[in-house]
Amino acid sequence: MIMSNGALLVAGTTSDAGKSVLTAGICRWLRRRGVRVAPFKAQNMSNNSAVTPDGGEIGRAQALQAAACGLVPDTRFNPVLLKPGSERSSQIVLRGKPHGFLDAADFARLGPMVADTVAESLAGLRRDFDAVICEGAGSPTEINLRHHDIVNMGLAREADMPVVIVGDIDKGGVFAHLFGTVALMSREDQALVAGFVINKFRGDVGLLRPGLDQLEGLTGRPTFGVVPWHLDLWLDAEDDVAYGRVLGRPAPPRGREWLDVAVVRLPRMSNATDAEALACEPGVRVRMTIEPSELSAADLIVLPGSKSTVDDLAWLRSRGLDAVIEEHAQAGKPLLGLCGGYQMLGRVIRDDVESRRSEVPGLGLLPVEVDFAAEKTLRRPTGTYDGVPVGGYEIHHGVDHVADGTPAMFTLPDGTGEGARLGAVSGTHWHGAFEHDDFRRAYLTEAATRAGADFTVAPGTSFAAVREGMLDLLGDLVEEHLDTAALLRVIADGAPAGLPFLPPGAPGAPSQAQGTMGR
User: Fold this and answer.
1) Where is the composition biased (Low complexity) (predicted)?
2) Does the active-site annotation cover 481?
3) What is the pLDDT of residues 430-443, one digit of tens each?
4) Of the listed 328, 429, 431, 481, which one is catalytic?
């Protein structure tokens, strides 16, 4: 197919409406058609991130969307990333690099500060690709933030880009959400909304038809399709990391027992997706939890990454979970710390960067001391684990100092070590290591032995194949359940002219004369 300078913004009625996965699905579908396509999210707010080959940091959802396009991660795909460290403060990552901190009270100044960066990144992608599929953030009608918007309708106005709004029917009230989203927009913003997509539907689509017809009659805009809810869409979730969540749907165990893995659901958890590769293994049950009983019963406890290591360590102690973790380790059962979780396992943490609480004691389960550096470490290392090849990516301020003679978790190509191991307790700064199949199998085999579980690792599980299968499934859902011919016209030609307006629009919503993207 011939397409030039095509673009689309996938907006949502709410957070977790399905913007990320629909964007990935559209990207995969276009790539199959021979379109050179790239993803884009002007501003993401997430502690789940990935490292680009040149050492930049972007949202993990954009890394997944890049994979859907057959591309390696690029900082242009997500030029602004906000990483919340508390209820009122976030670290700003600009063009892949840390760029200070932003308080909630100063949020309005962010748009004008980064508008040029966003515009330049998008313009560069549109020059280099046939189509750019953009993901919005939250809702496009957060009218209190509209004047400084750079990721939803402000972006669409600046780039003269058509918009599709996706609503999650599983939340209820989807017709009101879709209608109200458009009705609260100014006339200039409404003119860019080409239509709707309904997501996560269960049942007979025929039952929705009267509502779809009425929605089109009320708004003058079609629903491009109804995407069904699907069990296999669970990898790389940014929003769905609630307490008690069981990851994936693993096949039954090959041995006589399941291997139970408990991931401590920290309040400021980052890169929670590390545990997802474990959940792809037959017989491995992975649960996000804060319940002491579930931690005590687990074969393996995982302390994940954290955007605020010292604060999450204090929270851990306030709930008495530190005692449960220590008892687990003293019993000789496997315990793994990843990034911030690894730092918690050490003897002491000296932090004048994130928490600014100077020196605090760690859990003391590994002979490691950690000093926080002002400069963030961002890299994609490789090494071995007992001779088994492994790789990952690092995103951290903490610098670990491991006591002499302590075995490393990984051996680097130059012969030095990374991380630490002491009996059944181990830790590393590497994210993504479990995506390497041979290492994952070697680690789980050792963990099962230490836990005394009658568990046999399956030999053939490929995490890369599981992820590719999910991306292909997303492409299939787009192709089978959306009006792709109409969607192609919108991407290539923009929103149709002469779309009707819904009165009254939001009082005080920006007019064309007031500018967009915070300018």
Assistant:
1) 508-519
2) no
3) 999 999 999 999 99
4) 431
